[in-house]
Amino acid sequence: MSQQNEVLVRMTGIHKYFPGVHALNDVQFELRAGEVHALVGENGAGKSTLMKVLTGIYEKDAGEIEVMGKPVEIRSTKDAQNLGISIVHQELNLLKDLTVAENVYIGRENMNGFLLDKKAQNKRAQEFLDRLNLNIKATQNVGRMTVAKQQMVEIAKALSYENTRILILDEPTAPLSDVEIDELFRFVRDMRSRGVGIIYISHRMGELKQISDRITVMRDGQYVDTVDTATTPIDEIIRMMVGRVIYEQPKTESHVATGAPVVLEVKNLRSRDVRDVSFQLKKGEILGLAGLVGAGRTEVGRLISGADKRDGGEIYVNGKLADIQSPCDAVELGIGYLSEDRRRYGLCLGLSVANNIALTKLDSFTQGIAVNDRQIKSTAREYREKMDIRTPSVDTLVRSLSGGNQQKVVVSKWLVRNCDVLIFDEPTRGIDVGAKSEIYKLMHSLIEEGKSIIMISSEMPELLRMADRILVMCEGEKTGELGIEEATQEKIMALAAPQV
User: What is the pTM of this model?
Assistant: First the structure.
């Protein structure tokens, strides 16, 4: 067997139990040297649990694991590391105040007696980065790098253990723009050519054809199938993932009613990151905000919602000049902002579903110092049904819900407040394809109720599928506006890319 076809990992009959849950049921998986093997499935399918078994975070309850042809027991992350298995998690684990070299070799520093030999460590790190063909300086401060470069540093850190041959990438492109994704894919292909086996977890179906050689599908904690990427249509992969056909065609025309009133107008909005941005949002419209990472899209959303202070410009709500100085001001005017980081800014993970839904309108659920818990739960049950939030009880902690259901809780929170303008910032980030479809349906239903939506998204197919009109930004400026009838990925990218 050639090195490129060598089986690096073989997992067979893997079972994992948690109280009341059979999380992994007779799962199998195989990774070969020099391949990118995608692992896909809806949230809750068991992908992360399987990888936690492989990396020693969880111990399997049954089954066998072979690494490079030898049976192994992986009982800790140290065991996995010693076997040449490394993982790069979706949330980057870098220390932003340290240099690249300090991050790569943290805990394994170059010491000269009791003193750190910084010069030797920088030299060692730079030689390693150069071997990986990375255009990164070892002495650069990580906090000043782009997210894409930080991602490369995280991967370099994983590969810096000399025996690493198995690399797990968990949603590596979630925070990246299309240009940055191309850079990451170049690096992944380079690692593949060196014989590294890469397990690639992603919810972005379009990426699979670009980067993977084989795809393993999981559903409900069970193995479904392993297929060759080149010969398997994406629609078939999605069907295996969700057990049903999901297909949303791009919009071909705007669905905004003729003569619809303008509910929000922004004139010459300015801040440190935004320069003279102007636009209108009509009743019943989904306005898409497109652009590369750093274009200023999120900053526009935060300025409108009062989360950041603006240096200039005017905001009109239903034709009236609005003095929005804080999120409370925006909420009073019927504007709700759904952050791209819902777990950090949109939810209180230690509270129940019911208490999260009630957060924006606590004043109506209190009398003096007494909280009407019965009313909170009744309202939460109403929205659980209306939004199809899949939870056994409204008393369930929101941290235990899937990403799609957490997003529904965030939306419910703003609907309880009766917000008419909703700013969705990356509404489907980290959400599987089935839950994406539900979020899209939810957004359409909100539009039918007369709400208006600003949708910020890094996924151009998503914008073309959902938006009635697309505003494109680059480096803090509005560079163009496209009706959905004329919008294409090529036109959006031409407006989004910096003009040198």
Answer: 0.59
